[in-house]
Automatic annotation (TrEMBL), chain A:
The gene is nfs1. NCBIfam families: IscS, PRK14012.1. Residues 1-30 are annotated as: Disordered. InterPro entries: Aminotrans_V_dom, Aminotrans_V_PyrdxlP_BS, Cys_deSase_IscS, Cysteine_dSase, PyrdxlP-dep_Trfase, PyrdxlP-dep_Trfase_major, PyrdxlP-dep_Trfase_small. This is Cysteine desulfurase. Its cofactor is pyridoxal 5'-phosphate. It comes from Takifugu rubripes (Japanese pufferfish). The lineage of its organism: Eukaryota, Metazoa, Chordata, Craniata, Vertebrata. Its EC number is 2.8.1.7.
From TrEMBL, chain B:
Pfam families: Complex1_LYR. This is Complex 1 LYR protein domain-containing protein. InterPro entries: Complex1_LYR_dom, Complex1_LYR_LYRM4, ISC_assembly_LYR. One of its GO terms (cellular component) is L-cysteine desulfurase complex. One of its GO terms (biological process) is iron-sulfur cluster assembly. Residues 8-64 form the Complex 1 LYR protein domain. The lineage of its organism: Eukaryota, Metazoa, Chordata, Craniata, Vertebrata. Belongs to the complex I LYR family. It comes from the Eukaryota.
């Protein structure tokens, strides 16, 4: 409904009553895009201003003190190049790097030789998708992915399309999960790679990677999974899941920013064309000096995660339940996006009907929240993930993602819930739509008049 | 658990809690205190002396780690953090810090 009024209202009347909600959103007819940044002004915090509390653990996480403790010596004392073979500086860095590689491998049940250090999950995804597709392009020229993938996966696929590959973007069901029958039916004899993310970054649903792995293995298709949001949070075993490539990010698991890893299966062997040319580090797949402190940090983060996985999961589930219970019991017409059971509990995506997501974000300015992924949070367009799960446009516009993590406290959850309840009620009081709903008018049946 | 081990464990527990409370950051402080308490609670019933000894060593390493990490205080800028164990508009001033 809002989409229609946006398309049909001429620019001269954009401020008139055609739009049912007070017009903070411009029409698409006036070409300048409206960015959330225009509404939620960026500014440095003043000395006497409060620091917002952090509820955006899907965007990034603070570094665990245990990780920093492991990294610091490699920033100052042990600064050798891990690829230097002629002196002790190099040897000690290499040992540290290999220990880190083993820690990463142990967390996902892999062999250390199958771990390639990269600059992050975006690079890992690019490497995996472009690398595998290009390596096998003489025989296989088809790639499958889903519509709810991260931007870097979708964009890599777009690049492949421009190179002449055909790509299938699988739709997802209402609950955010892929339809396995459709997935199996989409596999063609010339399909080289299937890429499905483990845990979605916006709605937190967890795809059945083990079943997808079985299908892929039986059809001889390589399976890549973007596990940036899943590693260290849910138990993962690459052999059980039959995953061939897996992307890992450091800063989503309380590790340093700027480092990640790609798991590449050795048996049966997966081959890929490297993106970067150079000194042939990382088995020639990723040239460039491995940053020892960052690799050590990633390793430490993985080892801490392995140790804490159960404790963290229990706590995050408890806090997420607390948040959802509090909000849902206090205000009506709140929808939780994504499958209620097949999910990682730390990512809660709620749609507050009859409330503008951005207005709510502005009202909740002392809580660091996001309406979706950080990469797309600058634009006011509704998230493509929510559109892919078939959320109505008005619900997609009113969604907020709550990220709960290791360092979240009960107090923070309670504050966020209470503040959310207060502001949603307040904004609804002001909304003419809400008033009409209270009077029993079916909003969807209204034909909004054009002037 | 033998008597010396018992007193050793109790003193280690107290030391860990004291040091954890020194974290300048609200979130790290809360996590450290909670994690120490929960770890000791979970391992309360362990009687095997070798396991107890291993856990004590681990605890001592953690204690050293916390002490190292807490000393980053001098790098910190005092800044107010909104914290909230009261209602939606009752605001508590907590001093917290950002590592620069």
């Amino acid at each position: 409904m809002r989409g229609r009024s946006r398309q049909e209202t001429p620019p001269s009347t954009s401020g008139s009553c055609a739009a049912p909600t007070p017009g903070i959103r411009k029409t698409s007819a006036d070409k300048s895009p409206l960015f959330a940044a225009d509404l939620i002004k960026k500014h440095e915090l003043e000395k006497d201003e409060f620091r917002p509390l952090y509820m955006d653990f899907q965007a990034t996480t603070p570094m665990d003190p245990r990780v920093l403790d492991a990294m610091l010596p490699y920033q100052v004392n042990y600064y050798g190049n891990p690829h230097s073979r002629t002196h002790a500086y190099g040897w000690e860095s290499e040992t540290a790097m290999e220990t880190a590689r083993k820690q990463v491998a142990d967390l996902i049940g892999a062999d250390p030789r199958e771990i390639i250090f990269t600059s992050g999950a975006t690079e890992s995804n690019n490497m995996a998708i472009k690398g595998v597709a290009r390596f096998y392009q003489s025989k296989k020229r088809h790639v499958i992915t889903t519509q709810t993938e991260h931007k870097c996966v979708l964009d890599s696929c777009r690049v492949l399309e421009s190179e002449g590959f055909s790509v299938t973007y699988l739709p997802v069901q209402k609950n955010g999960l892929v339809d396995l029958e459709l997935l199996e039916a989409s596999i063609r004899p010339d399909t080289s790679l299937l890429s499905v993310m483990t845990v979605n970054n916006e709605i937190g649903v967890q795809q059945p990677i083990d079943e997808i792995g079985r299908i892929c293995r039986s059809k001889g298709v390589f399976l890549h999974t973007d596990a940036a949001q899943a590693v260290g949070k849910i138990p993962i075993n690459v052999s059980d899941w039959k995953v061939d490539l897996m992307s890992i990010s450091g800063h989503k698991i309380y590790g340093p920013k700027g480092v990640g890893a790609l798991y590449v299966r050795r048996r049966p062997r997966v081959r890929l064309e490297p993106l970067q040319s150079g000194g042939g580090q990382e088995r020639g797949l990723r040239s460039g000096t491995v940053p020892t402190p960052l690799a050590v940090g990633l390793g430490a983060a993985c080892s801490v995660a392995q140790q804490e996985i159960e404790y963290d999961h229990q706590r995050v589930s408890m806090l997420a339940n607390r948040l959802v219970q509090k909000i849902m019991s206090a205000i009506p017409d709140v929808v939780m996006n994504g499958d209620p059971n097949q999910r990682y509990p730390g990512c809660v995506n709620l749609s507050f009907a009859y409330v503008e997501g951005e207005s709510l974000l502005m009202a909740l300015k002392d809580v660091a929240l996001s309406s979706g992924s950080a990469c797309t949070s600058a634009s006011l367009e509704p998230s493509y993930v929510l559109r892919a799960i078939g959320a109505d446009e008005d619900l997609a516009h009113s969604s907020i993602r709550f990220g709960i993590g290791r360092f979240t406290t009960e107090e923070e959850v309670d504050y966020t819930a209470e503040k959310c309840i207060f502001h949603v009620s307040r904004l609804r009081e002001m909304s003419p739509l809400w008033e009409m709903v209270q009077e029993g008018i079916d909003i969807k049946s209204i034909k909004w008049a054009q002037h | 658990m033998s008597a010396p081990a018992r007193s050793q464990v109790i003193s280690l527990y107290k030391l860990l809690l004291t040091e954890s409370k020194k974290f300048p950051s609200y979130n790290y402080r809360n996590y450290a205190v909670r994690r120490v308490r929960d770890a000791f609670r979970a391992n309360r019933t362990i009687g095997d002396p070798t396991t107890v000894e291993r856990l004590i060593t681990e605890g001592q390493q953690t204690l050293a780690l916390i002490q190292r990490q807490v000393t980053h205080t001098h790098l910190d800028i005092e800044q107010r953090l909104l914290m909230t164990d009261l209602g939606p508009f009752d605001i508590y001033y907590y001093s917290t810090s950002v590592w620069q």
